[in-house]
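User: Can you fold this complex?
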Amino acid sequence: MRYFKKKYHIVVLMGITFFLVITLIQFLPEFFTPQATYSLSSKELLNTVQSDQYQSFNKYIEKVIQIEGTVKKINFKNDTYSLLLDGGFTGSYVLCEMQTGQDIDDIVKGKTVQIKGVYKGYLMDAILLNCVLIENDEDE
Amino acid sequence: MKMNKTITIFLFIVAISSTGRSQRYISRQGQIEFFSYTKVENIKAVNNQAQGVMDISTQDIAVQMLMNAFVFEKSLMEEHFNESYIESELYPKGIFEGKILEFDPKQDQQTRKIKGFFELHGVKKDIEFKVSITNSNGTYTLKGDLQLSVKDFEIKVPALLSLNIADAITINFNLEFESYEN
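Assistant: Here's the predicted assembly.
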């Protein structure tokens, strides 16, 4: 009888833990997104990659970085959203391809956004993939 | 270092171009897909961030792509591609430079030959291929396909995987060029 009670408590404990984990997963998606290695503005990023010091930023290739910038353009192509962030350079932007499922409804040209994504390198634009929007009221 | 200069020069040209309608057209989210078909395995990858510049008066065209921006179905394949085959850390870009032969900017639809070189994995190869060009509302869409050989770019495939990678890789491209306006 005692043995049965102990087993019962363990099962209940596992059930509660499972329930808590599922709740966490549902209500705190940010909790499971990788932490950004480095955080900077789109202006700083474009300044660096366009200067002689461009190689200094190569250490962030394939790393998650966080960028703050103003939306210059929103593109929807091949069922995917991409945001072009202004960095004060004509013809050179930060191009962020967004993950599917990101809520782009509130994003408009001129809005300042915080984006986290994998930095791939630089051509005409600085390119980030797998991007997510960071909510302004969350602590990062 | 030279690659950075090339792009800087292009950007400079683009930035100072201001008289009337620009002759320069820009593509920011060009699509490049490649396929390797073998009996053992079919491999497909896509890059949606090919970027290029096209000058409709000189017929010059230049397109670059970050090799690590090719997305594969299997992440392990993506890892092999970047670390073993392309060695993306050493050779981060695929670069095409060439000319669109007998290009007529005024035609709505035309098929032309593009002649130039493609540089990959540190190797430059002269190539020539057909392109279908559509002109719609001031946007030029360039589409086509070509085949390239893995061996031509000194890409080393381990003997164990030689049956998994095709000798000839099929490449599809689809790039939209828009007029560069300040």
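The longest helix of chain A spans residues 2-27. The interface with chain B takes residues 50, 54, 61-62, 75, 77-78, 80, 82, 84, 90-92, 95, 97, 120-121, 123-125, 127, 129 of chain A (CB under 8 Å).
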